[in-house]
Amino acid sequence: MDETIIDMLPLTIVELAPVRDDHGKIVDFIWVYANEMSNRVVLPEGGSIVGQRVCDIDPAYRESDMFADAVLCIETGQPRELFNSSRTPTPHGRLKHLEGTVVRYSIMPKGEGCVICSVEITDLVHARDEANDWLEMFRSSFDHAVQAITLTTETSRIIYANQALYDLLGYAPGELDGKSTQVIMRPEDHAAVVKAGTKMWGGKIEQQIRDLTLIAKSGEEIVVSNALSSIYSEVRGERIFISHGRDVRADRKLAHDLASAVQRAEHATQLKSEFLANMSHELRTPLNGILGMAQVLTGGDLSSAQAEQVSIILESGQSLLAILNDILDLSKIEAGRMELSFVESDLRHKLARVCKLYEPIAEDKGIRLRLVVDPSVPSRMMLDPVRLRQCVGNLISNAVKFADSGDILIVATADARGDDATRLTIHVSDNGCGIPAEKVAQIFESFVQADGSTTRKYGGSGLGLPISRKLARMMGGDITVASEPGKGSIFTLTLEGQIVHQEKPAFVPSSGRDTTAGNVPSEGGRVAPRVLVVDDNAINRRVARSFLDQNHYEVEEASDGLQALARLGSEIFDLVLMDINMPELDGQRALDRLRAGDGPNAGVPVIALTADSMRGDREKYIARGFNGYVSKPIDQRSILTVMESCLAASGPDPERRIA
């Protein structure tokens, strides 16, 4: 080969002749030929190494692997290959600049000597070592991963599986290498994975996550959530698919257990709600008798002592009714059945009415209620007036209860939020006993008060504030408190509402728990309306009769739906008060039969009497065909108001009775 071409090669090519001692042992070499690259490596300052002895250039050569292999090649006549043997070939002397390089040698015998051809591969070796380091790190990471990881070829052959997969499926490490994934998958899952892989190959999807059922060595089926992705291997010349499988058996069991627990909790809540609803019905029936007769007695000729006794009965019964309503409200909120009714309301009027309601109680204690409504408060807002009255009333009631003298200040302000939205803030401050800081949180817990003696001294169930806070939060606000023992408290109610600009009367649907005063029948100038009272409870019939007798109604009675239909089929009535829950034939079915017939009372107004007191009951019974609704315990003024409304719409007709 032309020496010019050889000198252009990035190789060192030298021919060595051995130098032997008197015993024939090779102790050195002489360079008899060296190409240009060899000269530059050994003598970087310039010059030629031809004719020089190797160990004269650097004695360290005598201890190198290359020297030993050159001797061995000459003595045996066999070529030698060295790789990575000269990482530090000459740690001393003139060739120290080569320290750290990696060289590949080929040594071939030639005559009495040898030819050595070498190439530096330091960068390649470093790249290989770095790649091996990364490979080891990745392999270690994969083997310590919690998820089961597999690498497969386009033909579904497993080229790697980590320890988690072997542990999951019960195989020995390496046992799955080269196997088809069909071994560890159900046929339908394997087909789905192959289909997804084809789409990845075509660039239609980058990743697929789906549930797979893997087959363990024992035959057990194991559900995993599998993420499949792919990369193209330049070295292998094919696409490699990477699967990450997560054992979801524990997750599925936990989800199932949680769902079962939720179902049990919902069932328990439903049972509790049904129990409370039934208890409400059962408690309201005797309460109806107690409160009803007490109201009747107030219209009689009583001595002052008797009047006081009746007043105590009424007050105690109403307190019991309030506690019953609180328990029902709490039950509805906890069961997620509390419904709010946002209607256009005169906010200023509502606040004034609430304060007016508590003025007599406050005046009895020498306390004055002061209401201050800031000009920022809109006249009309969309809100739930019943729940607003409940929240504000509870705060005022508590303030009156715990204050001994002075003023209770109720301040209302508003903060516009844009798009007619506003945040209403109502502060109720008193100078009562106050609440210790460590007990502030307790007052918002159900059935809990700041001090156990509070119940004994002031009464109450400990439900008012918890219910009011829950209602406030349902309306987008909250109730908070700032208090100092011995100086009083400031309770703050916030609500989110919508301003109403158009001027039109606010409409608030009536409810069985509202007590709105109305006109009572006058004694003269009309025929006494004839009313049929239908109730299976004799006390309830007696209460209703007493109310109506005092107000000049003609009253007849029936103890169940069948008796009522019999009388309605043969007599004329102007109005029917119908209990809902009765044996034999309940009020709803009695009404349906009455309306379906063509008797003389087919169109007579019928008012539902029921111990049900859930929000929305009035609308429910009106939708079912009743003309009105009154909840028990019956309030005299409320029932007379509803009756007058129904009679005004139909009117007693004396001629109809004669007919």
Automatic annotation (TrEMBL):
| One function term, GO molecular function aspect | ATP binding
Q: Which residues carry this modification: 4-aspartylphosphate?
A: D579
Q: Which residue range or ranges hold the Histidine kinase domain?
A: 278-499
Question: Domain Response regulatory: where?
Answer: 530-647
The UniProt entry, under Pfam families, shows: HATPase_c (PF02518), HisKA (PF00512), PAS_9 (PF13426), Response_reg (PF00072)
Q: InterPro entries this protein is in? A: CheY-like_superfamily (IPR011006), HATPase_C_sf (IPR036890), HATPase_dom (IPR003594), His_kinase_dom (IPR005467), HisK_dim/P_dom (IPR003661), HisK_dim/P_sf (IPR036097), PAS (IPR000014), PAS-like_dom_sf (IPR035965)
| Membrane keyword on record | no
Q: What catalytic reaction does the record list?
A: ATP + protein L-histidine = ADP + protein N-phospho-L-histidine
Full protein name: Sensory/regulatory protein RpfC
This chain's source organism reads Hyphomonas chukchiensis
Lineage, broadest ranks:
Bacteria, Pseudomonadati, Pseudomonadota, Alphaproteobacteria, Hyphomonadales
